[in-house]
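Entry:
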Amino acid sequence: MNTLKKTLALVATLAMASTAFVGCGEEEKKDDAPKTEATKAATEAPAADATDAPAADDEADAPAADGAIDASVGTGGDTLTIAAWNPDDVPFLIAQWKGLDYKTVVDQLTNGEVEGVNFINMGVKGGEAAEAYNQLLATDEDLDVYFCEADWALQFINDDSKTLALDKLGLTDASFPNINAYTDEIGKDLNGVRKGVSWQAAAGGFGYNARLAEEYLGVTSPEQMQEKVADWDKFVATAQEVSTQSNNSCALAASIGGIWQAFACGRTTPWVVDNKLQIDDFCKEYAETVKALWDCGGVAKNEQWSTDWTAAGTTGNVMGYFVSTWGFGGFFKDAAGGIGGAEYGNWNLVQGPTPFYWGGTWIVVNPATDNGEEARDFIISATSDEAAMSEFATKKPEYVNNTTVMDSLISADTVFNQKISGNFKDGQNYFEVLAENAKTIDFKGLITPYDAAVKTAFINNVQEEYLEGGASWDDTVNAFKDDVAEAITNIEVE
């Protein structure tokens, strides 16, 4: 078995699911995204049996009355235990809920000084958290609330033994009236039951070096740049122009991984329909797009997440990065050289060829919780209370998952974080650009529990076979099918 196939087989065994690359760290900190190759960024998939979400039945599965805790949910426990793979987000959500100081809350939680709350910091990367949660859930240790990354959320959301239907806490669709549509879809299981909800929206855009854009393209405004990259044909043409004008010294895009994140959100057919793998025109369009960029030098060939990948932004060898909300204080700032760096303050943001999201995290509840009331109150504070969310958006800072809150803050020209905002030329309101993309992302009917494994196989084969190996498209498709068939044994691969 080759390395790729071993990787995919392991992935399926570990049962990690869904569609994005990485988790969303605090914007002030460097992101904790796994430092993998660009082609491996689509992440892992769920085990085969994760697809069969148990159907709701009988009185035991009936939702609680609006706002009430169902009698089947445990209450009265001494401590609300919340788990996550790192301390980038959860302590600050706890601080907002409890009215604590953001500057001291991490130490307070570490020292057990927050009354009634225990935070388990697993100290692993996001992709390793799924297995850590599975091990924790298999024990009798206390666990009430935990956080699932988009990469593997479906494994837990589609398993009633691991996640509680939120209507058991009296939380209905009406409890979350202003969340972004795509986050709504990911938070529901195959029966349409809400199991998770996200406090953040991870919409993305195309961030570009305005100095280089003016030098090589004659572009002097974000509006002009958006026209140059408004669709994938224009994006390729602009990449070719940049290569020509720079004597092949500058690539328009920093990585294939970033391109994939944006392109993948344009898919209109699920990867699996009626238990059959779907290979449609989208697949070939992606392959041809990245091949055109690869061949003309329009995309840099540095390994995704490597220091070379971010350093390219400081050297003038890369004009742009696909980036989402969580990345502006992490890799995107690093690509400018950090505060005071060689390219700090030279960047702008546009929507790019298509609306997309990258990452995100969903709050879920352990069915064995003994703190149903506290779990509900914590979730409301993080995802529904607009006053709390507005404060969190600016103090953390965070692009919160509430269109009303974000529209209000954006229209007021709020500076969410001066160090991050200072990286944008002419004080551009970059969240205003992201707001438009966040509202237009549509994943309804497109999410399957197999997405991540299929995408991993697809993007790997496109790069390794089609781009680097020079294989024909038919041979690339056949290699892709072989890998999917080996990794996922209970779907049909024709």
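The two ends are 21 Å apart (CA to CA).
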